[in-house]
Amino acid sequence: MNPSSNPAAALPDYPGNLYVVSAPSGAGKSSLVKALLELDARLMVSVSHTTRAPRGQEQHGREYWFVGQDEFQAMIDRGDFFEWAQVHGNRYGTSRAAIERRLQAGEDVVLEIDFQGALQIKQIFPAAVLIFILPPSWEELLQRLRRRGEDTPEVIEQRMINARHEVAQARHFDYIVVNALFDTALFDLKTIVHAQRLKYSTQRRSRPAVFDALQLS
Ligand SMILES: Nc1nc2c(ncn2[C@@H]2O[C@H](COP(=O)(O)OP(=O)(O)O)[C@@H](O)[C@H]2O)c(=O)[nH]1
Ligand SMILES: Nc1ncnc2c1ncn2[C@@H]1O[C@H](COP(=O)(O)OP(=O)(O)O)[C@@H](O)[C@H]1O
């Protein structure tokens, strides 16, 4: 956990839903979230800020806002981050403005962040739904990192070491999805999002249409 992060007061009960997806590097969270967004027009992903250098095809403002150490530090000092954390030697953060505005507008937001950030979010926004994605095995995780071909062997080795610690945090999450077969994991993710959407809308102002159809109070 990040002792220096700016602890926010609990957020109000926004009409939008917040989903947080975490996983060890290479488990498939970016691929799954991308596929989920294609299936679900109501979901928006929040683009984080990072001090990490861009990988091959990554674009500023699409995968991340790539910023320098000084700019990141200035954002921390101004309290611009909802949460931030140091992960694999770089800093990553979710900007407050982007997600609060969307949740207020009733949009559903997905954050793809590490477990430290996820646990910070749960503290300030208990209605957030925390989903942890597990690889089917350590061997498969290593193969996926190698096949992705984006990281040096040293970086892959570090990510495999960090993964042991990260997966131990899965028990603090609301749901666990095993990404063995991609389509099965995607289906699981979609089901969680859909089920939570129905559940939360019953607790809030809006009622799911099926309640009217069944004349439920
Ligand atoms: N706390 C936090 N973690 C983030 C944020 N954005 C990305 N991360 C996490 O940082 C880690 C490294 O991400 P990245 O460098 O893209 O590598 P990848 O996970 O291998 O694709 C992953 O666990 C991400 O989920 C953020 O805004 N906040
Ligand atoms: N179920 C799966 N089976 C096989 N390969 C997968 C699966 N899910 C993702 N991958 C591949 O594994 C690699 C890592 O996935 P990625 O989405 O980048 O992971 P993460 O965002 O968690 O670091 C990518 O090359 C991706 O295409």
Automatic annotation (TrEMBL):
<dbReference type="InterPro" id="IPR008145">
    <property type="entry name" value="GK/Ca_channel_bsu"/>
</dbReference>
<dbReference type="InterPro" id="IPR027417">
    <property type="entry name" value="P-loop_NTPase"/>
</dbReference>
<keyword id="KW-0808">Transferase</keyword>
<dbReference type="Pfam" id="PF00625">
    <property type="entry name" value="Guanylate_kin"/>
</dbReference>
<dbReference type="InterPro" id="IPR017665">
    <property type="entry name" value="Guanylate_kinase"/>
</dbReference>
<keyword id="KW-0418">Kinase</keyword>
<dbReference type="GO" id="GO:0005524">
    <property type="term" value="F:ATP binding"/>
</dbReference>
<keyword id="KW-0547">Nucleotide-binding</keyword>
<dbReference type="InterPro" id="IPR008144">
    <property type="entry name" value="Guanylate_kin-like_dom"/>
</dbReference>
<dbReference type="InterPro" id="IPR020590">
    <property type="entry name" value="Guanylate_kinase_CS"/>
</dbReference>
<comment type="function">
    <text>Essential for recycling GMP and indirectly, cGMP.</text>
</comment>
<dbReference type="GO" id="GO:0005829">
    <property type="term" value="C:cytosol"/>
</dbReference>
<keyword id="KW-0963">Cytoplasm</keyword>
<keyword id="KW-0067">ATP-binding</keyword>
<comment type="similarity">
    <text>Belongs to the guanylate kinase family.</text>
</comment>
<dbReference type="GO" id="GO:0004385">
    <property type="term" value="F:GMP kinase activity"/>
</dbReference>
<protein>
    <recommendedName>
        <fullName>Guanylate kinase</fullName>
        <ecNumber>2.7.4.8</ecNumber>
    </recommendedName>
</protein>
<feature type="binding site">
    <location>
        <begin position="23"/>
        <end position="30"/>
    </location>
    <ligand>
        <name>ATP</name>
    </ligand>
</feature>
<feature type="domain" description="Guanylate kinase-like">
    <location>
        <begin position="16"/>
        <end position="194"/>
    </location>
</feature>
